[in-house]
Amino acid sequence: AQSVTQLGSHVSVSEGALVLLRCNYSSSVPPYLFWYVQYPNQGLQLLLKYTSAATLVKGINGFEAEFKKSETSFHLTKPSAHMSDAAEYFCAARGGFKTIFGAGTRLFVKA
Amino acid sequence: EPEVTQTPSHQVTQMGQEVILRCVPISNHLYFYWYRQILGQKVEFLVSFYNNEISEKSEIFDDQFSVERPDGSNFTLKIRSTKLEDSAMYFCASTFSGPSAPDTQYFGPGTRLTVL
């Protein structure tokens, strides 16, 4: 069965520092992978998605993620954190009709 | 940009009452989904719907739940007899293509259901 694991329920970085949010998936066949961001009391906004076209995927707001099949990982990065990046981030894998979400990582950005 | 809309944004109900959550998917999309997020927990898949029938459902989606596309634009989730543990944020989503395509699921803003 498919599963998505996000390492670290909370990550805290300083403004301007590198953001690294970790995600590993478990699947016999690499699924379609997504990162979503959720701001307080709002819905889910797509940051980026992996569809097997390229292993390095660029998304909105300066985020990118690299698909590594050998590590079954799809970590999200941003070179320089901004205060507005503070939110909850969900890694997700789509297989079949449903999307399986990780538990989420809350990103805190310190001034 | 087209978007998925949901009404109401917040629904408060008494335990045992029926609730209907409404969604308007993106107009040319063909596949529709409901997810829920209990406060502080992960987003969980409930059900997918295509061609007027359920295509997949999770173990959460028991006989208390039902979905319907009553007309050409709305997609509803009905909970027949609400329980306290049904309190959650419910998200509707839609896609144009089915599972064989890496289509982005567009999510609505959610309906917060509070069962008292």
Task: Name the descriptors.
heterodimer, A: 111 residues, mainly beta, 6-stranded mixed β-sheet, B: mainly beta, 7-stranded mixed β-sheet, 4-stranded antiparallel β-sheet, globular
Description of the structure:
The complex is a heterodimer of chains A (111) and B (116). Chain A is 0% helix and 59% strand. With 111 residues, chain A is mainly beta. Chain A is globular and about 40 Å long. Chain A starts with a strand and ends with a strand. Chain B is 0% helix and 49% strand. Chain B contains no helices and 11 strands. In chain B, a hairpin with a 5-residue loop joins strand 4 (31-37) and strand 5 (43-50). Chain B is globular and about 40 Å long. The A-B interface holds A 32, 34, 36, 42-46, 49-52, 90, 92, 94-104 and B 31, 33, 35, 41-45, 48, 50, 55-56, 58, 91, 93, 98-99, 102, 104-110.
How would you summarize what this structure contains?
Chain A is mainly β and 111 residues long. Chain A is built from no helices and eleven strands. In chain A, the strands form two sheets. In chain A, strands 2, 4, 5, 9, 10 and 11 form a six-stranded mixed sheet that branches. In chain A, strands 1-3-8-7-6 form a five-stranded antiparallel sheet, with no helix packed on it.
